[in-house]
Request: fold
Amino acid sequence: MENPALDKLLDYVSQCNLRDGDPLPPERTLAETLGISRRDLRGALASMEASGRVWRGVGRGTYLGARPLKFAPSLRSLRTGSSPADIAEMRLMLEPALIELATRKASPDELAELEKCAKRNAIARDDDEWQQWDHRFHLLIAQATRNTAIIALMDVVNGMRMKPNLREKTADQDTRRHFAQQHQAIVYAMMERDGETAAARMRDHLLNVQWRMPAKPE
Reply:
């Protein structure tokens, strides 16, 4: 899928010799420099964030590279020996709980972005495109909590899921469409500020994900 705004942003990063950890200019300045709208710029940044190439902090700006984890020493051990089933089991415990907090705090713009992610999931043409928008969807929910510890933890979980040997597969279109419908049901509950229903919808979704995983070795 072509994305001219993303291409311009990547060219800018390359031409300016920016490296991981370097900050990007404020959105208004960067959009004017690139000759694109702020809406298109946000879409390009969202794409880069979903693939782990930038991170954005509330009140801090946008930086190249992966989000620095304050809790890295303790979270790093999560990557060791974890299986897709382990990750699915952990997500089932965490995400239904955190979404209730996100439902209370999410801004209208965040809810609109979540709805956009669900729609993009519904038309994803392959597993790679699905994963991009799926990771974006779940990370946005974490970010809506405004809790840096939760965001850091979900960053690690998403990073684990992106590893080829740890990621769940959504290879067929029927599965992708079904999961996208579940994402949309989650967003609708959040828009109604119904945290209990949002949590139940997330639990149903993650149970479906877990059901498709290989059995966890005893």
